[in-house]
Amino acid sequence: MTRDARVNEAFAGLTGTLVGPGYDTVEFLHRLTEVCTALSGAAGAGLVVSDGRGELRDVAYSSDRVRRLETVQIAIGEGPCLDCHRTGEQVVERDLARARERWPRFAPQALDLGFRSVRAVPMRLEGNVVGTLNVFDVRTGIEPGQDGPDIVQPLADLAVIALLQRRYGREQTAAEEIGSALADRTAVERAKGVLAEFGGLDMDTAFEALRSHARRSGTVVTEAARDLVEGRLAPAAVLAN
């Protein structure tokens, strides 16, 4: 399959999910970061959004390694996603080993996690930047659209649509919708922690187990997560094949 065909298939799948039954924001955004990683040829991708207080929060990521780096840059207040969110312009760093002056605390952390280059693009809504989509690679020299038409910015735009999808037919502001997505993400993170501790799993494996259970049971990831953390669902049932 050609790259153009893979891109078309991926976008068709994502948009089909947006208008299909059983839509779940957290699961969709995680899937979007996975698609971004695969189509860009990078090592990982993550989404951060601005909460009701204007603070950045990580909401989805392709791997726990990406989550750790996103958490670090938000905590220290330094890094590509913060620069992108502040300026509204994409940020590209092709060699993080040369970015210690630019980001003296973030760059060493990224290098320690094995990342060598990064790109951040804005998520815009009605002229405002509400978050960023960040792409990380273990290679130097990351280039926008280096393997064909750029797909990262369109995916960032699709992420905004996904965050606001549940507003349809309801009186809810964009800030409230983003807040709901962050609350859902918190429930999923707690559920992953429960499964990781119960089964001796890493966080990526725990999340895949939660997703698999949701598919088997015909529910959505967020609902399964809430059932787990509130005691209506046993960890053993989630981890059963």
What report would you give on this structure?
This protein has 241 residues and is of the alpha+beta class. The protein has two domains: 168 residues, GAF domain (Beta-Lactamase, 2-Layer Sandwich), CATH 3.30.450.40; 54 residues, no CATH class. It is 54% helix and 15% strand. It has ten helices and five strands. It has a five-stranded antiparallel β-sheet with strand order 2-1-5-4-3, sandwiched between helices. Strand 4 and strand 5 form a beta hairpin. Helix 7 packs across helix 9 and helix 8 packs across helix 9. The longest helix has 26 residues. The radius of gyration is 18 Å and the shape is globular. The two termini are 32 Å apart. The mean pLDDT is 88.
Itemize the secondary structure elements and their pairings.
Layout: H1 3-19, H2 25-40, E1 44-50, E2 56-61, H3 64-76, H4 80-87, E3 91-93, H5 106-112, E4 117-125, E5 128-137, H6 152-164, H7 174-199, H8 203-217, H9 221-229, H10 235-239
Antiparallel strand pairs: 1-2, 1-5, 3-4, 4-5
Helix pairs in contact: 1-2, 2-6, 7-8, 7-9, 8-9
Task: Name the descriptors.
alpha+beta, 54% helix, Beta-Lactamase, 2 domains, globular, 241 residues, 5-stranded antiparallel sheet
